[in-house]
């Protein structure tokens, strides 16, 4: 594993590169959610298993996390940092890059995939609707952005995720449901473990 530090206007970010076995045919550029880091079970499992299948996995610690803060900034600052991070490490990645992440990180990936030239999106624990909120607070419009740009999108959702079950995500996608692969993994928003998530990612991207 190689650790890179890249500057942003909000402070340095760190990118942990897990190199592919052999010649990589792509990079999964993934970041964490608003309440955790790159040690999350699903991200760790992907970084452990996908390199043997030919994927370079790059786990991104956002600048607020590197700075030791416990609360993520608002989406505009997350997006601004992601733009700088992608530009800063692009030369270290494979030609083909899939954006992704868990929860808030998945939202960032969805918002910026088309703009920054990603070839797809991997959304882990997409936070469809905050618990206790109504459908007017749905983030489905963000998940639809890469779909409408013609990019392949995979969602891996906990079976009992309080932000939205796999069926909730499919229902919210409406007539675009056929354009998104939605996989179920055991657990809630944080998953029971990472193995099932890595299995689903392997099945779709390899």
UniProtKB/TrEMBL annotation:
Pfam families: Abhydrolase_11. InterPro entries: AB_hydrolase_fold, KANL3/Tex30_Abhydrolase, NSL3/Tex30. It comes from the Bacteria. Residues 27-191 form the KANL3/Tex30 alpha/beta hydrolase-like domain. PANTHER family: TESTIS DEVELOPMENT PROTEIN PRTD, TESTIS-EXPRESSED PROTEIN 30. This is KANL3/Tex30 alpha/beta hydrolase-like domain-containing protein. It comes from Janibacter indicus.
């Amino acid at each position: 594993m190689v650790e890179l530090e890249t500057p942003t206007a909000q402070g340095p970010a760190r990118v942990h590169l897990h190199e592919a076995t052999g010649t990589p045919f792509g990079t999964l550029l993934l970041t964490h959610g608003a309440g955790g880091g790159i040690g999350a079970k699903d991200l760790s499992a992907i970084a452990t298993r996908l390199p043997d299948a030919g994927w370079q996995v790059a786990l991104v610690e956002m600048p607020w996390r590197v700075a030791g803060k416990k609360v993520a900034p608002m989406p505009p600052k997350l997006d601004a940092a992601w733009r700088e991070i992608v530009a800063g490490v692009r030369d270290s990645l494979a030609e083909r890059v899939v954006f992704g992440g868990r929860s808030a990180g998945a939202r960032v990936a969805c918002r910026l995939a088309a703009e920054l030239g990603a070839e797809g999106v991997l959304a882990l624990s997409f936070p469809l609707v905050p618990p206790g909120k109504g459908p007017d607070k749905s983030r489905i419009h963000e998940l639809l952005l890469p779909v409408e740009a013609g990019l392949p999108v995979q969602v891996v959702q906990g079976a009992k995720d309080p932000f939205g079950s796999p069926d909730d995500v499919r229902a919210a996608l409406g007539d675009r449901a056929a354009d998104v692969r939605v996989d179920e993994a055991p657990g809630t928003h944080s998953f029971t473990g990472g193995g099932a998530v890595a299995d689903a990612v392997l099945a779709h991207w390899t």
